[in-house]
Amino acid sequence: MLTPITVALYVLPLVAAGWATVKIVRDKPLLLAHRSDRVFFRFLVGIELLVIVQAVVGFVSLAVTDHQVHAVTFGAYLIGLTLLLPLGVWWSLGDRSRGGTAVLVVVTLTLAVMVLRLTQIWNGHA
Amino acid sequence: MPDAHTDDTRATLAATTRSGPGRILIALYAIFSVAATSRSAVQIATRFDAAPIAFLLSAFAAVVYIVGTVCLARASVVSRRIATISCVVELVGVVAVSIASYAVPQEFPEPTVWSHFGSGYLFVPVVLPIAALWWLRRTERVGG
Predict the structure, then answer these.
(1) Rg of chain A over CA atoms, in angstroms?
(2) Do B20 and A98 count as a contact with CB atoms less than 8 A apart?
(3) Does the global pTM surpass 0.90?
(4) pLDDT single digits (tens) A42-75
(5) What is the ipTM of this complex?
(6) Residue in A72, A80, A103 nearest the CB of B27
(7) Which residues fall within 8 angstroms of residue A29, CB to CB, at 6 or more apart?
(8) Contacts (Cβ under 8 Å, ≥6 apart) of A10
(9) Disulfide-capable partner of B75 in A71, A73, A120, B14 (CB 3.0 to 4.6 Å)?
(10) CB of B5 within 8 Å of any CB in chain A?
(11) CB distance A80–B42 less than 8 Å?
């Protein structure tokens, strides 16, 4: 299941977390009026699209594989991952202070960790 | 005192609790609610006999995180009080389960959210209740 998508989903959320951290350090709120912030949100949308593709690939792989995978946990991770960014971004945008931007750091790091766990679950660690 | 004033105070208290560090705390509590709930549900449903104590403690942790998330997010005077109590329970729980996981490792063949001071979760479980209690205390006087 270690596809290029999965590798991208280790790296891109970390880039997003770094990006958000820079915003926090410089104490600049995320505003859609800023061009760079619109680019950032498109970047997050891109990550979310990859997460959705990964969910589709994941469920198909689960259906056709013949090796032992904890299907319930694996499926729960695939679905949970698709909800993480939309909910996290919504919660983040409710507060345009550093706190709200820090939510994006938390959410993107959680995403990377969950993708790592997803790979471990696929490889047989429950 | 006119009611409008108290309503304003309540709204300010809720908004302040939910902003800044509170925003991060509620996000973390929500993530841990989902993580602990799904983890304990899978553990209890599929292999309860392997480590019943550890799995029941995971389920208890899940309940505490849900209470924490809801009460911090509602941020009314009453819910903040409930959150304070649940954070104390959480802190005591994390410390007790962590000590137990070192003292009687045979009861914890599989890690729970709270064992080993939450080392499997970057030690966030032990930091979370302390940070939440600090935040609740700091925002206590807002709008009053």
Answers:
(1) 16
(2) yes
(3) yes
(4) 999 999 999 999 999 999 999 998 888 888 899 9
(5) 0.91
(6) A103
(7) A23, A96, A97, A100, A101
(8) A112, A115, A116
(9) B14
(10) no
(11) no
